[in-house]
């Protein structure tokens, strides 16, 4: 079981990662070749904050469904339109699966727009074995482990085997969605749906239907979310940016709309966010 090599995107979506990553350990593992069309990676977060204050981490989600095993429970989380927060306290570990953008639909066979901002019980799709694995992880958190890497790999292999037993047929449309989302992520010049549609030789309405079925949300949202990840990463360096230029790069017509949306999604203005980063860094 190999660790994921997506180092350039290691902290994207984890707000203020550079300042706060010492509070926890995040490890990612690649899926087997058989599962690669469906699963982006497995991830494990561990923390030990005994004798420390609890820590609240804010996440700006990617356009992906995640399955999370934590506190003896297993749930499947759809995309969150705004940030989500996670409280870390005492000692613990969480095991998760990040599905590819088009990879969860074949398991569920329903439009993903029904999962936006909600979660469902994972055992509905993956059986009671997923709850047994979640319970074993919760139990392991209560004892000291000399080799967390070995334990991590054991958990991931168990989870992958559970998923393999319910593996659907490969889905050409889902894999097309994966390729389109990778194109958006890796090409910052894509800031408009029309431009994306032209580049992949389709029309915007077809793209809309495809994204809503397989991801649960439209291509405009996906484009802006990836550009927002890039902006947040720059802000995490404490940089005061050219807001007008940034707004244009994110696909906004003016700076005011960008600031309004940023505050609605993140909970504070861009300048307020940078001030928070600088205060944490000092």
Automatic annotation (TrEMBL):
GO terms for molecular function: DNA-binding transcription factor activity; sequence-specific DNA binding. It comes from the Bacteria. Keywords: DNA-binding, Transcription, Transcription regulation. Residues 175-276 form the HTH araC/xylS-type domain. PROSITE patterns: HTH_ARAC_FAMILY_2. InterPro entries: AraC_XylS_family_regulators (IPR050204), DUF6597 (IPR046532), Homeodomain-like_sf (IPR009057), HTH_AraC (IPR018060). SUPFAM superfamilies: Homeodomain-like (SSF46689). It comes from Fontibacillus panacisegetis. Pfam families: DUF6597, HTH_18. This is AraC-type DNA-binding protein.
